[in-house]
Amino acid sequence: MTQIYAYIPFKNGSAEDVALEYPAAAKKIDAAAMLTAVVTGSGAELDSVATEMSKIYEQVIKVDNQALAYPNAEVVRKALVNIIPKDAILLVAHTTFGMDIAPGLSVKMDAAYAADIVDFEGIEGTRLKMVRQELGGAVSTHVTADISAGAVITIRPGAFAPVDGGAANGTITDKSADAGDLASTRKFLEVVEAEVGDVDITKSDVLVSIGRGIEEQENIELAQELATAMNAVVSCSRPIVDAKWLEKSRQVGTSGQTVKPKVYMAMGISGSFQHLGGLKGNPFIVAVNKNPKAPIFQVADVGIVTDILEFMPELTEAISSL
Amino acid sequence: MEILVCVKRVPDTAENEFELNGAGNDLDRDDLVYSVNEWDNYAVEEAIQMVDKMGGSVTVVTVGDDESEEILRREMAMGANNGVLLSDDAFEGSDGKGIATILKAEIEKGSYDLILTGAQADEGAGQVGGMVAAMLDYPYASLVNKIDVMDDKKIKVGREIEGGNQEMNEISLPCVLSIQTGINEPRYVGIRGIRKVSSVEIPVKSASDLGLDAASVGSAGAKTRRVDYFVPDMGEGAEMLEGSTEEIIAKLIEKLKAKGGL
Ligand SMILES: Cc1cc2nc3c(=O)[nH]c(=O)nc-3n(C[C@H](O)[C@H](O)[C@H](O)COP(=O)(O)OP(=O)(O)OC[C@H]3O[C@@H](n4cnc5c(N)ncnc54)[C@H](O)[C@@H]3O)c2cc1C
Ligand SMILES: Cc1cc2nc3c(=O)[nH]c(=O)nc-3n(C[C@H](O)[C@H](O)[C@H](O)COP(=O)(O)OP(=O)(O)OC[C@H]3O[C@@H](n4cnc5c(N)ncnc54)[C@H](O)[C@@H]3O)c2cc1C
User: I want to staple B197 with a disulfide (CB 3.0 to 4.6 A). Which of A58, B76, B109, B232 is the partner?
Assistant: First the structure.
């Protein structure tokens, strides 16, 4: 029987949303698989997450060790190598923690590796068929992996429909004694919180958001003028912040702000999942992009194929004269 | 400090509209424009800045074919001192682990204090750096957006985590780091810079030069395999507004009014 383990990330004593998404993913791999949640950490916080998980999963493994109090990927990896059976499939969320731990773990487990999976299409013989994206979401691919010696797979948060938790009455097994030597040459020091900027984009109902399509720093003015006309605020995608054209606090996405506007104007933004990950609350999305194949058009409500540098001033003028 | 930076030649997402080929199972690669993976430019810039401060040298390496030489030259025009191309028909069909195995063999031939990769490349996996580290038993940190050298045995690195927060770690050398965009501002490379390095010899190493068993790399060693490319059916997608600019703007304003945008 296929054995699937799901690594549960948590913060401040409660599991992240992906904990409810793993069961749906596991079912698509093999509906008959045995699914086990794995929680590592320390003390009361760990216990409360393990208890929470026993209401979703029939089997829960907890690993309690002071060295696991903060999820330092190098330390957690050492513990998991000793705890996950060699021929099992381990699911990890494709987050900054998942990206940190999973590739090396697959090497140490001598298992197949697949990253950022958005769908599973079942097992045929020894091969598992999966769907992932490349080139910033511009194309999808089917990949297969030989899982006969196990697999480590990261799944994209939000890609699998969450199950209803609460019904299970799972068993919690304490495997702390099996964790082994957790000494590491990478030491966690502290988390430095992101700086707060002069504008709070999370407070605005309407965002005029610019991406690499703005092309030059001077052109940001065009977006600012449109935003002023719409009584909106300018936000942006990551490359604009990397180029130091706007403050980090204006960045929408998984490594930036999570926003819940009513209307989101995506101007010259391709629509990568890290960008869209910061967009919540089902806003009305208007996408303007000169590439008709840009992935943003798959999630937008309204799309316009044109050059934003020409379009924005015309829209500003039309709105101003209303 | 001796620094090795791994770089990959990738289709440029800003310059291409991706289409499937006639058979519908691969990209139409005929007219694709290629460049250096965006993340790798930040890794090379960081390495150059470190060596400018502390001395040492920067070597750039790629696993690829003849055409990959151009990206090594580009990074050498930025200021990397040496380039190495790892190329062999036996590498064809390599998965991420295959690529990591090839890079590991080259790393073991040198003596590097620090190995840098990009946080991810065109395939969006972000796998090679962590794999190389595990194979070498070096410590690893991904998504690094700050490096402070403490002494010749230890560095302090910041990892960019969710919400743009920064996770600080102390890590021993030698180690492998994957570099996140925004850590620096990569310098511009002009045609003249590239011309300057156009005649520099770039060694090409094969599987046997690296002492690699052909069964451990290429399709023979690959547990994962890409079957095909496809365009997913995402349902309806956006309602596309068409017509003259005035017509489009009129329709858009109606919608924005209805949805609370105006
Ligand atoms: C761990 C991690 C975290 C990340 N976090 C974030 C995050 O929080 N937020 C974020 O945004 N990204 C994030 N990224 C980066 C993300 O992967 C993408 O690289 C990024 O979102 C791309 O930004 P973009 O859409 O502006 O640029 P591109 O992908 O380059 O897209 C530019 C678009 O503009 C269009 N265009 C160009 N010129 C014009 C024009 N004149 N008129 C109209 N259209 C034009 C192009 O067709 C293209 O679709 C993260 C990446 C990683 C690895
Ligand atoms: C010669 C060759 C043949 C291939 N054949 C196939 C095939 O038949 N089928 C198939 O599906 N795939 C094939 N690939 C793709 C291969 O599987 C990917 O290169 C591998 O998975 C890593 O790419 P990635 O985008 O996942 O890298 P990521 O892990 O996302 O990249 C992160 C970082 O790793 C480093 N890196 C990645 N790739 C390289 C590289 N090639 N050289 C140096 N550094 C690198 C870079 O620093 C990069 O920023 C081939 C690749 C090569 C080079």
Answer: B76
